[in-house]
Amino acid sequence: MEESFVVLIRGINVGRANRVAMADLRALLADLGYLDVRTLLNSGNAALSASGKTATEIAASIRHGLAARLHVEARVVAVTAADLAAAIAENPFPDRAGEPSRLQVVFLADPADRARLLPLAQQDWAPEALAVGTRVAYLWCPAGIATSRVSRAVGSAMADVVTARNWSTVLKLAALVSDTRRRN
């Protein structure tokens, strides 16, 4: 049975490095055997369907495909549609979603990595905030992500095993994967 996934590729189409046309990404994903491939924005966000694969296997195959075919080294995080829905439902800052660019959802490559964030979640980041969910972390950065202390701390603790999207993009990804699931 096919399952729907969201794929988040870190660091492509940011500045001049690691440029990937979304048409090339869709073609790569289809050639890797994924179905119902759709992309969102020009930043490495995709929804797809697959049978008999885990999110970890999907992320690894896409990472290798990007390197082999498009000569781009990038971290890839894949989550199931159910994981994405849970991340939305668990949002501990729903009152702050009115400023979606200031609310970041950090997707973990491995849910076990959340243990590295738990000590940070115990700290007082005011006026910023950090909460740790099942498979994600939530960062409230009222002055923006570029100057955020909590964002820097999470980045330092997690190195390359996460990728973040703002709340607006997370909701758009949910709509994209929902549309993919309706088509199956």
Spatial strand sequence of the major β-sheet:
2-3-1-4
CATH fold-level name of the largest domain: Alpha-Beta Plaits
Q: Would you identify the CATH H-level superfamily of the largest domain?
A: SP0830-like domains
Query: Poorly predicted ranges (pLDDT <50, ≥5 residues)?
Result: none
Q: What is the CATH top level name of the largest domain? A: Alpha Beta
What is the C-alpha radius of gyration, as a whole number of Å? 16 Å
Cα distance, first to last residue? Answer: 10 Å
Compute the average pLDDT: 89
Helices and strands, in N-to-C order? Answer: EHEEHEHEHEEHEH
Count of separate structural domains: 2
For the biggest sheet, the summary is: 4 strands, antiparallel
Q: Beta-strand level of the residues, as a percent range?
A: 25-35%
Instruction: Describe the global form.
Output: globular
Number of helices: 6
Structural class: alpha+beta
Helix residue percentage: 25-40%
> How many strand elements?
8
By CATH, the architecture of the largest domain is named: 2-Layer Sandwich
